[in-house]
Structure formats: C-alpha cells, structure tokens
C-alpha cells in the first residue's frame, strides 16, 4: 500500500517531536573560581583549596559547610535568585542526574581555578576554565542522550551563562614568583595573554550554544585582607589594583566585540570595582564597621588564609565586608550582586517555581573582634 506524501510528512513531524521533546525551563551554567564554587572542590580528594570546615556556610541553610567560600551566598546565588533562576548544583556532586541538570543547570566553578591552565597549581587539584568547559561538553552529551539533539540545542541556547574568573590568575599565578608566568611576562603582556586566552574560551562556549552570557569583572584585589597584610604599609597594593583595572578594561572591550561579531550572541561585561572600592574606603556609608580584616580569623595571627574550626568569629557578621582573607561575606556579596544587577539590567525570568529563599542566619560562637 502506497501512503500519501502528506501523511508521511505529518508522521515524520510527529515522530521528530516525540523524540526531541523537552519541557525545559531556563537554567544557569556557571563557570568560575572560589567566588562562585558551590562544592566542586569538596569532591577533589587532593585539592588544598576547600571550604569544607566550619565556619564556612554558617549563615546558609543548616549552617554546615557546603562548599561555598563564605558564610552565606555567592554573588551568582543572589543574582540568580533575583532573576528567578534555580541554583545550579556542583557538577561533581554525586547526586547530579540528567533530570537535575534539566531542572537546575550546573555549576562548574572551582576554588583556585583560573582562566589559564597553569593557575592555581599550588593547590594540586582545581578545575581550570578549559577543564570546566570540557565538563560542560560532557553535560551536553548527557542532555542530548536524554532529550534529543534539537531539544538540547534549544535548552542550551536559552540558558544563561556566567563566567567569573581571573583573580587567581593574578594572585595565585602571576604575582607569585614560584610560577613561570611571573618572570615570563610583564604586566601588560600578561594581561594580553590572559585576555586572549579568555577570548578563545568564550568563543568556544558560543560554539557550544552559549548565547546569553555574563562576564564578571575583578574587584580591587589589592585591598583584600591578604594583600593588606603582605603590604609594607598595611594599605591597599596599588599595583595589584591597577592590574585588576587593566584586566577589566581589556575584558570589557573583548566582550563587547564578541557580542557584536558572534551570531545571536548577547555577551555582557559587568564589574563592581568602583562600588567595592568605595565600600572599602567608606565602610560606614554602607553599614559596615570593618572592611580591612576578616570576620573569621585567628585574631592577631595573620594571615590565617582560611577559616577553620579554631578560628574566632566577629560579633556581627553582617558588619564585616570580608569573611576570610580572600572572600567577601554574604552581606558584601549582596552589595556586589545589586551593583551587577543594576549594570546588567537584569529582569526576572518566568519560572514555574519561586526563586530560592535567602539563607537564615545561624547562631555561632563569636569573639569580641
């Protein structure tokens, strides 16, 4: 029996729709370092860069360490909540499944990771940006097997992407004499090397479907507590801050150019350098009592580098801009996120579920600091 051509075409369309069907919502894929890590490094057995001890996570959920290098939320957490996006779990979380990926997206950020492969090698194990992209490709294979090629393409092209790396490439690479990059390059040539590498990585993400992509700039790295301790004057290190400013300027130009030249790309660059610098210079203006030392520390023993169970906590964690020697507190991250939301002009994305709730402050021992 010979079937009409029209019937065959309709049947083929119905079959294709059945194969490539996915009632997928908009999710996030996050690439970054310790400022965005939500637990990947906890599953790297040999990593020396972990946030798996108290008092990390003290103001998040049950108050136990969860892989975030702060007392509460990351900047990406807060921005995602404001947009109505689900919080993506760590890629290395053993509970991650294809259904979880389709519902929540994935976070590949890794403490100590950088744009460059060589960055953070002192930490033994960490996921550099190229490795994170490789894991994203593995994620795509899983999703394609689950929902089919066309539905997967739609899913990945409608997703939101966050790229927040760069500080480790300076602090845990170029500015440390044990790394070859510290004597192979000068300030300008290193920034060119770094930004050119980032450009290739962003193009690769675009080829993999990234269309709505946000690149976060660097803050005044020379003013983090660790740099203040290492400074001969006890003040912000001007050279380090200038490196951050130069990186931001070059990356902003890169991102604008890619957004104009890559098909259907909406790549945007946002930095909170100015507001963070203002908070550090005028903490009282923003409700902080301290912007130059960590809330979680060994007191006069500096630098302590990480927060550990024997550390003492400040009386009011909401009044300290820095949580440890490197990372901002939850309250500080709120200010940074608010600034980026304003710069990016973010709008809420319709979802079937409400945004994740903000963490409730937990009770912990405090010192008189």
From TrEMBL:
Its GO biological process annotations read: lipid catabolic process
Give the range the annotation lists for the signal sequence. Answer: 1-24
User: Which GO terms fall under molecular function for this chain's record?
Assistant: hydrolase activity, acting on ester bonds
Positions the record marks as coiled coil are: none
Q: Where in the cell is it found?
A: Secreted
Q: Name one GO cellular component term.
A: extracellular region
What are the entry keywords?
Hydrolase, Lipid degradation, Lipid metabolism, Secreted, Signal
Q: Does the keyword Disulfide bond apply?
A: no
Pfam families xrefs = Lipase_GDSL (PF00657)
Family affiliation: Belongs to the 'GDSL' lipolytic enzyme family.
What is the designated name of this protein? Answer: GDSL esterase/lipase
Source organism lineage? Eukaryota, Viridiplantae, Streptophyta, Embryophyta, Tracheophyta
């Amino acid at each position: 029996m010979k079937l009409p051509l029209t019937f065959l075409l309709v049947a083929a369309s119905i079959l294709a729709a059945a194969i490539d069907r996915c009632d997928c919502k908009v999710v996030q894929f996050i690439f970054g370092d310790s400022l965005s890590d939500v637990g990947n490094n906890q599953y790297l057995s040999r990593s020396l860069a972990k946030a798996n001890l108290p008092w990390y996570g003290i103001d998040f959920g049950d108050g136990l360490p969860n892989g975030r290098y702060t007392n509460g939320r990351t900047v990406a957490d807060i921005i995602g909540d404001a947009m109505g996006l689900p919080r993506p779990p760590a890629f290395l979380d053993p509970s991650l499944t294809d259904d979880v990926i389709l519902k929540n997206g994935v976070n590949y950020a890794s403490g100590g990771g950088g744009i460059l492969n060589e960055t953070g090698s002192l930490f033994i194990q960490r996921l550099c940006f190229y490795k994170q992209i490789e894991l994203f490709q593995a994620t795509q294979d899983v999703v394609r097997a689950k929902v089919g090629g066309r539905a997967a393409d739609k899913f990945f092209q409608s997703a939101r992407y966050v790229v927040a790396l760069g500080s480790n490439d300076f602090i845990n690479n170029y500015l440390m004499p044990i790394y070859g990059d510290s004597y192979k390059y000068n300030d300008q040539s290193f920034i060119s090397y770094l930004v050119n590498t980032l450009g290739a990585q962003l193009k690769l993400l675009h080829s993999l479907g990234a269309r709505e992509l946000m690149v976060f700039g660097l803050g005044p790295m020379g003013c983090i507590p660790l740099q203040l301790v290492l400074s001969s004057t006890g003040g912000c290190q001007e050279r380090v801050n200038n490196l951050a400013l130069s990186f931001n300027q070059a990356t902003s130009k890169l991102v604008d150019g890619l957004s104009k030249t890559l098909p259907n790309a909406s790549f945007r660059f946002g930095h909170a350098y100015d507001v963070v610098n203002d908070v550090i210079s005028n903490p009282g203006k923003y409700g902080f009592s301290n912007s130059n030392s960590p809330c979680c520390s060994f007191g006069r023993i500096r630098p302590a580098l990480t927060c550990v169970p024997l550390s003492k906590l400040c009386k009011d964690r909401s009044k300290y801009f820095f949580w440890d020697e490197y990372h901002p507190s939850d309250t500080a991250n709120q200010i940074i996120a608010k600034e980026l939301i304003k710069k990016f002009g973010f709008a809420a994305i319709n979802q079937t579920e409400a945004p994740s709730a903000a963490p409730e402050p937990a009770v912990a021992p405090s010192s008189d600091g």
